[in-house]
Write a structure and sequence with these properties.
The complex is a heterodimer of chains A (102) and B (554). Chain A is built from three helices and four strands, in the order βαββαβα. Chain A is α+β, with helices and mostly antiparallel strands and 102 residues long. Chain A has one domain: ACT domain (Alpha-Beta Plaits, 2-Layer Sandwich). Chain A starts with 13 loop residues before the first strand and ends in a 5-residue tail after the last helix. In chain B, the strands form four sheets. In chain B, strands 3-2-4-5-7-6 form a six-stranded parallel β-sheet, with helices on both faces. In chain B, strands 11-10-9-12-13-14 form a six-stranded parallel β-sheet, sandwiched between helices. Chain B is built from 22 helices and 20 strands. Chain B is α/β, with parallel strands linked by helices and 554 residues long. Chain B has three domains: 170 residues, Thiamin diphosphate (ThDP)-binding fold, Pyr/PP domains (Rossmann fold), CATH 3.40.50.970; 161 residues, TPP-binding domain (Rossmann fold, 3-Layer(aba) Sandwich); 170 residues, Rossmann fold, CATH 3.40.50. Classes of the chains: A alpha+beta (102), B alpha/beta (554). Chains A and B meet through α1 and α2 of A and loops of B.
Chain lengths: 102, 554
């Protein structure tokens, strides 16, 4: 069947996604729901308002798989998502948090 | 300075957006809005008998007009009843603005009477949704909802408005301007040039049109492309009418219930030019085996559709009309005599079989008799099931927006309220709803609305006293174990329709069924036209679910 319907072999390669979003109640719901209903596991989530408080930054830690491109396109379609940047696992944001999860 | 309540503001903003008809069902949490609406001299409110009916009426209006239309419901069950119609609009990319009442802000989260999380519930089935926490937000939210519904790939937007926000008095300087669609993405000229080159170089290209062609108003451009480049053209269920079905280049609908020759032509294609379609599984069968020899050019306004199911050799993100306008001057005039001769040969060897088409009391014959009695100005809606596929296969669609059907979600109960919506939007047209006895029962209460509004809606009921497509699948794929697909007791639809105030005609007892049918279609006002159909008539050909399009049976 299609790329989407096949259950892909989830790789262990991590990807960090950086999103800038409008800051209001419900944005997290839109984003997390998008991943959840595709059974695309989000390993880590961070969200804080930016300095002007009208926008927030969300960091997502996910595993690379063949559905990721489609996931990213779907995230970018959300009205409240202003921009999306993709980083490698070497990005420091989750690494530096690890000490709070020991 | 202007002063008014949130409810009054919504009404003014709808008026300013050009909304003339809304469909809904009132209830406690949306009563302030209804009170404000009662003072409107510009908006006609149509009282549906179920919120799902209201949602499909708004869809019917939107599908014939191409612009966002509005449905209304109260909180709790009102909103949950609306959900199916919203989801249907999402899957078929229909512009819709749904406005729901909600319990007062302070009571949200308390399990208040008729409280449900409408916002949370509608996230996955809307393009976007809003829970309005302050009436001042309406100045931004209402125009934004319309802009989103009509921009890019159209779709449904929901605005949930708590009762106290509807009652809140606000002051503001001026109304926001009525909105127009957001600017279209700039066409990728390099990709368009490459696509033109591929079309010019192809030996056996096929044009594959989807609902995006209708949504973009690009039917004439698509037909021009086909004629200029000599492209045999197939249409999805959603695109029927984009090219007249009797156009020499039309090869009809593809997919699960497409004609054999159509699917065979696609097997032979060396280039597939996909315009505003999304490679839906009912259209393409097993994705890996669809158009096995073809390179793919894919044009879509929604970038997430590109490479979603099939990887395109050239993917063009853009509005179909704009892309076609840029593409046409670069496409060479070709006659493609060899390829079109091969297509004609397949067409004559493997045509769509339409047995008994001369008998108005048979399934294809009834479709044909309706078409014979009408011209292309009529609007045709359907419910979902065997009758829908027979109409899709056999009705001579010749113009865009002539055909309204629930494609993506496949919602039984769509047909009658959608027909009511079409008749409300375009009252001079005859609107025919083909239905089945299973589907019609799913929104049969809207007969009351059709009668009350005295609309020119004709229901043509193909009655086999069964869930026919389920019965068919159980016969073909489940060892003839026909569970829960036959009704044990027949419904007297003539009496039911009469009870709701419709005219009725029974073709079963008519001496001259074709003449009786034609006369009923010409009489103004709502009417049920009943005809018994043999339960053993199946929709053929059929690609087994999950199979490749080359594996048709029947």
């Amino acid at each position: 069947m299609s790329i989407v319907i096949d259950r892909p072999q989830a790789s262990r390669i991590k990807v960090v996604l950086e999103l800038e979003v409008n800051n209001h109640a419900g944005v997290m719901s839109h984003i997390c729901g998008l991943f959840a209903r595709r059974a695309f596991n989000v390993e880590g989530i961070l969200c804080m308002p930016l300095a002007d408080a009208t926008r927030s930054r969300i960091w997502l830690l996910v595993f690379e798989d063949q559905r990721l491109e489609q996931m990213i396109k779907q995230v970018e379609k959300l009205e409240d998502v202003l921009s999306l940047q993709r980083h490698g696992a070497e990005h420091a944001v989750f690494e530096r948090l690890e000490e709070f999860f020991r | 300075m202007m002063q008014m309540t949130g409810a009054e503001l919504i009404v003014r903003l709808l008026e300013r957006q050009g909304i003339e008809t809304v469909a809904g069902v009132p209830g406690g949490a949306i009563l302030p809005f209804y009170d404000a609406l009662s003072h409107s001299e510009k908006i006609h409110h149509v009282l549906a008998r179920h919120e799902q009916g209201a949602g499909f009426m708004a869809q019917g209006m939107a599908r014939v007009s191409g612009r966002p239309e509005v449905c209304l419901a109260s909180s709790g069950p009102g909103a949950t009843n609306l959900v199916t119609a919203i989801a249907d609009a999402k899957l078929d990319s229909i512009p819709l603005v749904a406005i729901t009442g909600q319990v007062p802000l302070a009571m949200i989260g308390t399990d208040a009477f008729q409280e449900v999380d409408t916002y949370g519930m509608t996230i996955p089935i809307t393009k976007h949704n809003y829970l309005v926490r302050d009436a001042n937000e309406l100045l931004d939210v209402v125009p934004a909802a319309f802009r989103l519904a009509m921009s890019g790939r159209p779709g449904p937007v929901l605005i949930d408005v708590p009762k106290d926000v509807q009652n809140q008095r606000i002051e503001f300087e001026d109304y926001p301007a009525p909105v127009v669609p957001a600017p279209l993405p700039a066409p990728d000229l390099a990709a368009i040039e490459q696509a033109a080159q591929m079309i010019n170089d192809a030996a056996q290209p096929v044009l594959y049109l989807g609902g995006g062609v209708i949504a973009s108003g690009a039917s004439h451009l698509a037909v021009t492309l086909a004629e200029q480049a000599g492209l045999p053209t197939t249409m999805t269920l959603m695109a029927l009418g984009a090219m007249p079905v009797d156009h020499p280049l039309s090869i009809g609908m593809l997919g699960m219930h497409g004609a054999r020759y159509t699917n065979y032509v696609l097997e032979e294609a060396d280039l597939l030019v996909c315009i505003g379609a999304r490679f839906d599984d009912r259209a393409i069968g097993k994705a890996a085996q669809f158009c096995p020899k073809a390179k793919i050019v894919h044009v879509d306004i929604d970038p997430s559709e590109l490479d979603k199911i099939k990887t395109a050799h050239v993917g063009i993100h853009g509005d179909v009309s704009q892309v076609l306008e840029a593409l046409l001057p670069q496409v060479h005039v070709k006659l493609r005599e060899d390829w079109l001769a091969q297509v004609d040969s397949l067409r004559s060897r493997f045509p769509l079989a339409t047995p008994n088409i001369d008998n108005p009391r048979s399934h294809y014959g009834l479709v044909q008799a309706v078409a014979d009695a009408l011209d292309d100005e009529a609007v045709i809606t359907t419910d979902v099931g065997q009758h829908q596929m027979w109409v899709a296969q056999a009705y001579p669609f010749r113009r865009p927006r002539q055909w309204l059907t629930s494609g993506g979600l496949g919602t039984m109960g769509f047909g009658l309220p959608a027909a009511i919506g079409a008749a409300l939007a375009e009252p001079t047209r005859t609107v025919v709803c083909f239905s089945g006895d299973g589907s019609l029962k799913m929104n049969i209460q809207e007969m009351a609305t059709a009668a009350e509004e005295e609309l020119n809606v004709k229901i043509v009921l193909m009655n086999n006293n069964a869930l026919g497509l389920v019965y068919q699948q159980q016969n073909l794929f489940y060892g003839k174990r026909t569970m829960a697909s036959n009704y044990k007791r027949a419904t007297d639809f003539l009496k039911v329709a009469e009870g709701f105030g419709l005219e009725t005609v029974d073709l079963d007892t008519a001496d001259d069924p074709a003449a009786t049918l034609a006369a009923a279609l010409k009489r103004p006002g709502p009417c049920l036209i009943h005809c018994t159909i043999d339960r053993e008539e199946f929709v053929y050909p059929m690609v087994p679910p999950g199979g490749a399009n080359s594996e048709m049976i029947g």
